[in-house]
Amino acid sequence: MTSLFRRRLVVAGLALPFSRTALAQPLTCGSVTPPETEGPFFKPKSPLRASLIEKNSASRKLVVSGIVLSAQCKPVANALLDFWHADESGEYDNQGFRYRGHQFTDAEGRYRLETIVPAEYPGRARHIHVKLQAPKNRILTTQLYFPGDPGNRRDALYLPELAMRMAAPGAGQFDFVIEA
After folding, report:
1. Which CATH number, 2.60.130.10, 3.30.43.10, 3.40.50.720, 1.10.10.10, labels domain 3-178?
2. Contact call for residues 111 and 174 (beta carbons, < 8 A)
3. Digit-coded pLDDT (tens) for 46-100
4. What is the distance in angstroms between the CA of the first residue and the CA of the last residue of the chain?
5. How would you class 96 by CB atoms within 10 Å of its CB: exposed for 0-12, middle for 13-18, buried for 19 or more?
């Protein structure tokens, strides 16, 4: 584990179980998280909720957690994270808010999302869309990917630096760096 990454975990007060392979892509504070396309399925005014798990869903559960940091490596409190992704069949809910929701980081910049592993849809790897905004700053729109997913190779939008670190099956970790 890099000492810079270890210091960030201590500063943010995180106690996350992880393995050496989970840290394959350590966070670099000077570099902001790359933007990605919003895609055609964003829907404003999502509900405030940290769990997107739908009643009666038999899909594999996923917890994504991490911290939001400024380019100066300071935790960003009260940052808005708006998540949305495809369902178990690779479809987006454009009528309601299935697998859509937003939340805010805590005082240490931490977030935690409970959801499912989304299905692929034609032409795309599995991914989760995110709009992220520090208070009174510009919005960053990006996507999170699953490391090692076979769809990554054929997805023209896939960026390796946006792949989550998987501490365990069903436990993804991604730290965002934004202008704040």
Report:
1. 2.60.130.10
2. no
3. 999 999 999 888 899 999 999 999 999 999 999 999 999 999 999 999 999 999 9
4. 26
5. exposed
